[in-house]
Amino acid sequence: MRRPTASQARAPATVLALLLIVVLVLPPLLSAYWIDVLTAVAIYSVVALGLNLLMGRVGLVSLGQIAVLALGGWVAAKLAFATSIPFPLVLLIAGLITLVLGTLVGLPALRLSGLYLALITLMLAGAITVVLSTTNFPNGGPGFLGHTESSFGNPSVRRPDIAGSDPGYFRFTVIVAAAMFALALWHVRSRPGRAWAAIRQSEPAALAAGVNITLYKLWAWALASFMTGVAGGLLAGSVGKLYTYQFPTRDSIILLAVVLMGGIYSLWGAVVAGGLMKLLPALLDDWGLPADLLTILFGVGVLQVLLTAPGGLAAQVPKDLARLGGALSAVVRREAARAERAPTGPAPREPAQ
Amino acid sequence: MIEITDLTVRFGGVTPLDGMTVTFDSGTCGLIGPNGAGKTTFFNVLSGFVRPAHGSVYAFGDDLLAMPHYKRARWGLRRTFQTEQAIEELSVADNVALAHEHSRRGSRVSRRADVLGALELVGLGVAPDVKVEALGTRDRRLVEIARAVVGRPRVVLLDEPAAGLPDEETEHLGRVIRGIPEYTGALAVLVDHDMSLVSACCEKTVVLDFGKLIAAGPTATVLRDENVVRAYLGTEPVRVER
């Protein structure tokens, strides 16, 4: 329904250029370590995207997203060891199965909201973690659970043939992540996005416009779960072997913090959140700073968002840059005007008004 | 036509609607009464936000109370709210498209034309792609009315659309409301405290007081009715004539 403005028409080109740089230019320049880190950033951006949609678009809080990620990882690992279907199909099926499981987790969202919903999802996440710590992740073992205790010579989760190397898998991950963002954008710009905006602002208004609130809330939950499930599959392929300790329940809380800091009202916020969650710790480590600093940084960051910058970094940085640009150009213009007024000799101390 | 029979709503010990029986025929009908008379409660019963203790509502032969609330909108029941509920995050056109795409009576092909038509009817002087958060109260009200008239609704409920608007804007609103029956073919019910707006828009008017119907008929007659005058001025308990 919207007539695209010039800047909106330019946006896809910018995104495409950025994507090409990340996929083609970046990998040869980086060491294996940073490739690994950036792969994790791309994966967690997708996880953040799920929560970004739930919170920013529909107004639902979930503290169980990392458990949903673990479910996706479990299903993908299981599929990778039990079948020989191509890896992209593994991702798709893992996403769809997680969609069903994650939507079950989201059922309380139909009755609850705010703090109670957050608590319920946190409890469910805890329960999933407990179950996973007894079943463990499939690692090529026998039976339905596919787990063997022997830690010697277990195979890794396979990767796609075209993306076996780390840089190759990084490219693959970025492209899948970009597809997830495109899926999210398509939803936000069309019928579900309009329905979600109505639900978030006023459920009576949404009902009066004929929006089936139950359907659209579940739809949001299903979409977020699907993405998170795909991310779980990407993670399985990235690290090769999954362990329960990689999915601590507290990571769901950290995810909430970084998603808020990244900004919940823009999809870019999810990219920023992925960076905060996985790139920032690696940078701190690289600079020899203690990792505990993160807790403080995230605490301050969330306070900042709640008090002064509800749009998070995704909204604040462009605003601040524009302000900075405005201030700089004002200085440049003033200097130019001064130079024009006094082409020879020094500028007058008090320019005439 | 909406036929309401013996409609009663109870909240604990309070009875905001008490055995309301009335028929709305066609065109725009006024619904007035002092504060707390049950006007908004009546709208909420029709929209499905409040479940009545007993009574029935048949609109054009369909049992409205048997439908889930979102399906009532699809059936063709639309409303505006006393405090406007235009969706801030969406553009003006998307606000209207929201109602259009969830109504069974508007086709996908005609959506753009229908949305622009509804915006033209309400006479909103801003571009369709402007976000609602940039608009003032008057324009938001008009967006909400456009959302209520798009996609050929059958019943349009307007809950105090003029509340808080200055006189010249109320005049514009009156012209918009008078245009609704012709544009949509719908039956409209207008709740407002502005009697000149009600007189200007409605041929017939129904008066509620303490949940009871105290008068119904041509607007000019109803406004002179001594029970109505007494209900508004509050001199003594009102005698109910049936």
Morphology of chain B: globular
Radius of gyration of chain B: 18 Å
Average predicted confidence as pLDDT of chain A: 87
CATH architecture annotation of chain A? Orthogonal Bundle
Report on the structure:
The complex is a heterodimer of chains A (353) and B (242). Chain A has 353 residues and is mainly alpha-helical. Chain A has one domain (17-289): ABC transporter involved in vitamin B12 uptake, BtuC (Orthogonal Bundle), CATH 1.10.3470. Helices cover 73% and strands 0% of the residues of chain A. Chain A has 13 helices and no strands. Chain A has helices spanning 6-29, 32-58, 65-82, 87-106, 114-135, 166-189, 191-201, 203-208, 213-239, 250-262, 268-286, 293-307, 312-341. Chain A starts with 5 loop residues before the first helix and ends in a 12-residue tail after the last helix. By secondary structure, chain B is of the alpha/beta class. Chain B has a domain at 2-84 and 154-233: P-loop containing nucleotide triphosphate hydrolases (Rossmann fold), CATH 3.40.50.300. Chain B has 9 helices and 10 strands. Chain B has a 6-stranded mixed β-sheet with strand order 6-7-8-3-9-10, with helices on both faces. In chain B, strands 2-1-4-5 form a 4-stranded antiparallel β-sheet, covered by helices on one side. In chain B, a hairpin with a 2-residue loop joins β4 and β5. Chain B is globular and about 55 Å long. In chain B, 49% of the residues are buried. The model of chain B has no long low-confidence stretch (mean pLDDT 88).
